[in-house]
């Protein structure tokens, strides 16, 4: 079978297509005939080995040679003890602990998967797991009328978060590059800020929730952008910002404002919830482009170079 292979850390063009033996499903795993696998910023980070936390999995060489964790496909076989699905079932899910999705076949834990609703094609289903679930978890308790700022709103997670916040009745300020302004407005943003032209922490304005998907600032600056009782959730970004929230953010959270890291929690229920929202047409999976498996390097490059509007998806075996 074919797979997109990374031998060592480097730019996306170092990813090459190799012929590999068919994976064997182990205990609690199923073998999927892959139909689609979306690209996450985390795939790009694990290809390039940057930022530094991407090397927690492998300091000098990648631990995972075949990336891709947002999988959608058809169950081809079940390993020992795997009984939740039958051969031929269409399923999807987040297999972040094992990866292997950028391939014709992948052996993945069955407890990370749910049945794919008929209303979703495979490419749409593959766009949902990581980005859709974390967006849902970040905005779980949002009330109507709340002022939300989403930094990095035009990326994979941001495109879901923006729509979910709007669906909950929030007033949403979306921050990203100027080229994405039209896209952000089309997703429902009430206001758009060009991150290159304006620093949202220097505007003298306050938000009830700042969801930071591309954190670059220290917690001192962030605190000034939070209304009393406001919350700051950091999902991804530069090392310095991550360290700042872990140290200063923790100290500052003893006051009326709360600043913390948000780590994704694996949840089949949350995945089913975002899938139902998309199937019902209440949230759109913004699929920027699809690429065939042979062009996985180009798919990763599109995300790495910041050209994607929403999600990029690799599809196997023709249209997904
Ligand atoms: N906490 C967790 O559990 C968890 C789990 C998985 C992933 N993550 C992390 O979450 C982050 C977001 O993931 P994603 O898939 O949504 O990434 P993404 O698709 O790359 O989205 C990030 C967005 O931020 C934009 N951006 C770049 N520079 C910016 C700046 N200075 N200010 C504001 N926006 C800027 C990007 O624009 P360009 O594309 O034009 O650069 C892009 O639109 C990643 O760092 C990922 O590693 C966290």
Q: Determine the fraction of residues in helical runs and give it as a percent range.
A: 25-40%
CATH architecture of the largest domain: Alpha-Beta Complex
Would you state the CATH class of the largest domain?
Answer: Alpha Beta
- Could you tell me which ligands this complex binds, including any ions or cofactors? NADP nicotinamide-adenine-dinucleotide phosphate
Distance from N terminus to C terminus (CA atoms, Å) equals: 18 Å
Instruction: Kindly report the average pLDDT value.
Output: 95
Structural class: alpha/beta
The overall strand count is: 15
Q: What composes the largest sheet?
A: 7 strands, mixed
Shape verdict: globular
The helix/strand series, from N terminus to C terminus, equals EEEHEEEEHHEHEHEEHEHEHEHE
Radius of gyration from CA coordinates = 19 Å
- Any idea how many domains? 2
Number of helices: 9
- Looking at CATH, the homologous superfamily of the largest domain is Medium-chain alcohol dehydrogenases, catalytic domain
Relative strand content: 25-35%
Low-confidence stretches: none
Give the CATH topology of the largest domain. Answer: Quinone Oxidoreductase, Chain A, domain 1
3D architecture notes:
The chain has 320 residues and is α/β, with parallel strands linked by helices. The protein folds into two domains: 2-128 and 285-315, Quinone Oxidoreductase, Chain A, domain 1 (Alpha-Beta Complex); 131-261, NAD(P)-binding Rossmann-like Domain (Rossmann fold, 3-Layer(aba) Sandwich), CATH 3.40.50.720. The protein is 26% helix and 27% strand. It has nine helices and 15 strands. The strands form three sheets. Strands 3, 4, 5, 6, 7, 14 and 15 form a seven-stranded mixed β-sheet that branches. A six-stranded parallel β-sheet has the order 10-9-8-11-12-13, with helices on both faces. α9 (296-304) links the parallel β14 and β15. α3 crosses α4 (156-167) and α3 crosses α8. The longest helix has 14 residues, at 239-252. The mean pLDDT is 95.
């Amino acid at each position: 079978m074919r797979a997109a292979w990374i031998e060592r850390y480097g730019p996306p063009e170092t990813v090459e297509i190799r012929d590999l033996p068919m994976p064997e499903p182990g205990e609690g795993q199923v073998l999927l005939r892959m139909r689609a696998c979306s690209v996450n910023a985390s795939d790009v980070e694990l290809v390039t080995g940057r930022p530094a936390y991407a090397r927690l999995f492998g300091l000098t060489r990648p631990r995972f040679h075949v990336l891709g964790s947002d999988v959608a496909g058809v169950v081809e076989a079940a390993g020992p003890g795997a009984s939740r699905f039958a051969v031929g079932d269409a399923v999807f899910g987040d297999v972040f602990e094992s990866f292997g999705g950028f391939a014709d076949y992948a052996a993945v834990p069955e407890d990370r998967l749910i049945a794919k609703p008929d209303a979703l094609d495979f490419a749409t289903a593959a766009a949902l797991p990581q980005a859709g679930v974390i967006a849902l978890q970040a905005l779980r308790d949002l009330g109507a009328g709340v002022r939300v700022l989403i930094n990095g709103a035009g990326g994979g997670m941001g495109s879901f978060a923006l729509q979910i916040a709007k669906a909950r009745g929030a007033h949403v300020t979306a921050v990203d590059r100027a080229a994405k302004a039209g896209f952000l407005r089309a997703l429902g943003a009430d206001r758009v800020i060009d991150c290159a032209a304006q620093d949202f922490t220097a505007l003298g304005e306050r938000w009830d929730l700042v969801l930071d998907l591309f954190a670059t600032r220290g917690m001192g600056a962030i605190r000034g952008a939070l209304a009393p009782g406001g919350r700051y959730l950091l999902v991804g970004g530069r090392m310095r910002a991550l360290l700042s929230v872990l140290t200063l953010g923790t100290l500052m959270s003893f006051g009326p404002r709360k600043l913390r890291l948000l780590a994704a929690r694996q949840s089949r229920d949350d995945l089913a919830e975002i899938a139902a929202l998309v199937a019902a047409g209440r949230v759109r999976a913004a699929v920027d482009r699809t690429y065939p498996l042979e062009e996985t390097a180009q798919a990763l490059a599109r995300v790495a170079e910041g050209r994607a509007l929403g999600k990029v998806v690799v599809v196997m075996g023709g249209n997904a």
